[in-house]
Design a protein that fits this description.
Elements: H1 2-38, H2 53-79, H3 91-122, H4 124-129, H5 132-156, H6 162-175, H7 190-205
Helix pairs in contact: 1-7, 2-3, 3-5, 5-7
C-alpha cells in the first residue's frame, strides 16, 4: 500500500514540476494569441471604476505596485544564473534581500488585493455586474499571495540560500528544456510546491480571463509626444456661425 502511494506521489511530483509547466506555457502563449486574433473585443479588464471609486483607486494602486514588483522580482531572481551575481553577493545575502523586499511588496499587494476583493464581494451593485471569472481570479490571486507570504518564515529558516538556489535551478532548467527539472526541488516544504503549482495555473488560465489585459499595459503612454490642447496666451478664437448653402453668413 505504501509502495503504491509512494509511486503515485513520485509520479505526481514529476508531472506537476516536469510536465505541467510546459502545458501552462503552451496554453498561455498559444491561447493568448488565438484570443487576441479572434476575440479582441473581450481583451479588456472590465472596469467598474464608477462604483466605489475611492476604494478602487487606493486598492488598485497598492495591488498593481506590489504585483509588478513581485513579478519582476521573481523573474529576475529565479532566472538569473548564479555565476552572474556570485562575485557581488552570496546566495544567503540574495535570499535575505529577496525575502525582505518581497515581504514588503507582498504586504502592500495583500492590502490592495484585499480591498479590491472586499469591494467586489460586499458591494451589491459591483457584485451584480461581476462575472464568476472576475471573482474567481481575485480569489485565486489572493490565495496565491497568501501562499507566498506563508513561505517567508520557511525562507528565514534557510539563511544559506540553499532553497533559493534549488528554485532557481528548477526555473532555469524548465525554460532551457533540460531534463530532470522536477528532481531539483524534491524535499522542499509544501508551501513552496503549492505556490509554484498555483502560480503556473495562473498562467494556464490567463487566456480565458481578464488577466489578458496585462499585455495591454499602456507603457507607451510614458513616452508619447506632447499633445497641444490650447495655445498659450488664452483660448483660441471662437468660430462664427456657419452659412447655409446658397446664403451669406451674417456679419
Amino acid at each position: 500500500m505504501f509502495a503504491i502511494w509512494d509511486g503515485f506521489t513520485d509520479y505526481l511530483h514529476g508531472f506537476l514540476f516536469g510536465i505541467y509547466p510546459y502545458i501552462c506555457m503552451g496554453v498561455f502563449v498559444i491561447g493568448s494569441l488565438i484570443r487576441f486574433d479572434r476575440d479582441q473585443y473581450t481583451w479588456r479588464s472590465g472596469s467598474s471604476q464608477m462604483l466605489r471609486a475611492k476604494q478602487l483607486r487606493l486598492g488598485s494602486n497598492l495591488f498593481h505596485f506590489g504585483i509588478i514588483f513581485l513579478f519582476f522580482g521573481h523573474f529576475v531572481g529565479l532566472l538569473t544564473p548564479h555565476w552572474a551575481y556570485e562575485w557581488l553577493i552570496t546566495p544567503g545575502q540574495k535570499q535575505m534581500v529577496a525575502v525582505t523586499a518581497g515581504g514588503i511588496a507582498g504586504v502592500v499587494c495583500f492590502v490592495g488585493l484585499t480591498m479590491l476583493l472586499h469591494r467586489r464581494l460586499y458591494d451589491d451593485r459591483i457584485r451584480r455586474t461581476s462575472t464568476y471569472a472576475d471573482t474567481f481570479i481575485l480569489l485565486l490571486l489572493w490565495v496565491q499571495l497568501c501562499l507566498g507570504l506563508v513561505t517567508l518564515p520557511f525562507s528565514f529558516g534557510h539563511r544559506d540560500g540553499s532553497v533559493m538556489l534549488q528554485l532557481s535551478a528548477w526555473s532555469q532548467a524548465i525554460v532551457t528544456f533540460r531534463p530532470g527539472a522536477a528532481d531539483l526541488i524534491r524535499g522542499l516544504d509544501f508551501p513552496y510546491h503549492a505556490h509554484l503549482v498555483l502560480g503556473m495555473t495562473l498562467f494556464l488560465i490567463t487566456p480565458f480571463t481578464r488577466l489578458v489585459h496585462i499585455f495591454s499595459a499602456p507603457v507607451w503612454y510614458l513616452f508619447r509626444s506632447w499633445q497641444i490642447v490650447r495655445m498659450r496666451g488664452g483660448a483660441t478664437t471662437r468660430p462664427g456661425p456657419v452659412a447655409r448653402p446658397g446664403t451669406q453668413a451674417a456679419e
